[in-house]
Amino acid sequence: MAHPALQRLAELLPPERLLVQPQQLAAYESDGLTAFRQRPLAVAIPETSDEVIALVRLCHELELPFVARGSGTSLSGGSLPVAGGVVITLNRLNHILKLDPAQRIAVVEPGVINTQVTLSAAPHGLHYAPDPSSQSICTIGGNVAFNSGGAHCLKYGMTSNHVLGLKAVLATGEVVDWGGASRENVGPDWCGLFTGNEGLFGIALEITLQLLPRAECFHTVLAGYRTLEQAGDAVAAVIASGLLPGAMEIMDALALEAAVAAVHAEYPPDCEAVLIVELEGPREVVSADRVRLDEIIAASSPVEARPARDAEERLAIWKGRRSAFSAVGRLSPDFIVQDGVVPRRRLGEALRRIGEMSRESGLRCANVFHAGDGNLHPLILFDGRQPGALERAEALAGKILKMCVAMGGSLTGEHGIGMEKRDYLPDMFSAEEIDCMKRLRAAFDPLGIANPGKMFPGPEAPALTHHGLHPLEKAGVIFRE
To answer: According to the model, what pLDDT value does residue 459 have?
Structure first.
């Protein structure tokens, strides 16, 4: 342990919680974006908030880069290690510190798994609304960092809409306490500012979450369509009617094929797309809304429309949808999960154009997305063993992102910018806007040691090993080992 930083880190943690051997670090080289990898100097495994604070303060003193990591499910490279830096993994800070059904809040540590909050609240008739597809493994700390959404974000919003309070250690080592158990706070919305910072400000230590009453009744409809564009137009029709479903999801033929193979999901045959629409709320409201919904779906010319007859059928429908990302691995040895947003009124057009771009590139593209808010998740299939395949997949992903921005949408709905999309930031924001973001980041982290090289374009990227050839490598900024 010759590196002086390692000697100082060893003073804070016992040997079994400071990983430095290559075989120990291997599991932390990548997150969910496996096209990039980098071995850190060390992985620190704190078990208390005080240990996290001590680690961050040491990193500030030594000007040592650090990256906070939960379950490593980021699909944008957000928790990718930095060369010569430290990964601070938060999985052992996994306690629900308080659950108050009267106030409808839960106070949790950052390593708590998303689903665990709802499971703990369920006996009180409550639930935690944000539900990313990875909710059975992703952590609340990561959800806060990337402002995660999920299938039900159409009705309930993103993580930022459910964070009431935060205790965090900033990159300077300062500990802050923002918000509380109520929304009745005066002054700047510091919690809203911190949520979605992608780890560039510091590390959340305790998060106060809003809990909601569980819906009394659900009505879930599965509708199959001959084209993706028809499915997209059906979404626009439902929203235009004034209905506010809890969730609206679309899967195309490739995603359906994968879901059927993985979990034996039953979907209408011979369809290019299926639309899942779920109403939820008081029984009387759902009973009235389902009549309007059924009329709208019938008018959209589906091949088949099938309401779930009971809770078991509803869960089976959602099991297929939630398994779609991982199930696509059955169809291709490699794939890129992209994340962009288009206005709902242009959803059908966007899907048609993605199909055209996919055919032009010679790469298959499975589409799975949160249709209600126009959040696209194209899964671009390729074989990384073939020379140039990854580069072609990345080029297609870039075209899709540029299309989203050109249509008046966004580079990301919930996966964040991270490492993957930083070079596209100028397509959406002006130089002045990006400079404003950088100055805001510097106010929280003047040394630039918290998750450096992420989000912003420029030569300050961490040294990486890319499974292919990244544009920064071509420019001489990134070198392979």
So the answer is: 63
Q: How does strand 247-252 pair with strand 365-370?
A: antiparallel
Q: What tokens were used for 209?
A: 């979450």
> Which bin fits 478, alpha (ψ -120 to 50), beta or left (φ > 0)?
beta
Cβ atoms within 10 A of the Cβ of 66, count? 28
Q: Please identify which residue in the block is written with the tokens 């040394």.
A: 447
Read off the tokens for 38.
Answer: 């980098």
Sorted by where each starts, the structural domains of the chain and their CATH numbers stand as 103-213 (3.30.465.10), 216-419 (3.40.462.10)
pLDDT of residue 480: 28
Residue 39, pLDDT score = 94
Residue 378 backbone dihedrals phi, psi, to 5 degrees: -70, 135
pLDDT attached to residue 422: 93
The whole-number pLDDT of residue 260 equals: 79
125: left (phi over 0), alpha (psi -120 to 50) or beta: left
pLDDT at residue 337 in the model: 87
- pLDDT score recorded for residue 128: 97
> CB under 8 Å to 107, separation ≥6 — which residues?
96, 97, 98, 99, 165, 206, 207, 208, 209
Q: Are 241 and 292 in contact (CB under 8 A)?
A: yes
Query: What's the confidence (pLDDT) of residue 70?
Result: 96
Interatomic CA distance for residues 184 and 196, integer angstroms:
22
Q: What is the pLDDT of residue 423?
A: 93
Q: What's the rounded Cα separation, in Å, for the pair 202 and 205?
A: 10
Residues of the chain with pLDDT under 70: 1-2, 459-481
Pair of tokens at residue 389: 């395949």
The tens digit of pLDDT for each residue in 199-217 reads 999 999 999 999 999 999 9
Q: Which residues contact 52 (CB under 8 A, 6 or more apart)?
A: 46, 88, 90, 93, 169, 203, 205
DSSP class of residue 118? H
Helix/strand/coil for 39 = coil
Who contacts 385 (Cβ-Cβ below 8 Å, separation ≥6)? 333
Rounded Cα distance between 324 and 317, Å, is 11
- Contact between residue 414 and residue 375 where contact means Cβ atoms under 8 Å apart: yes
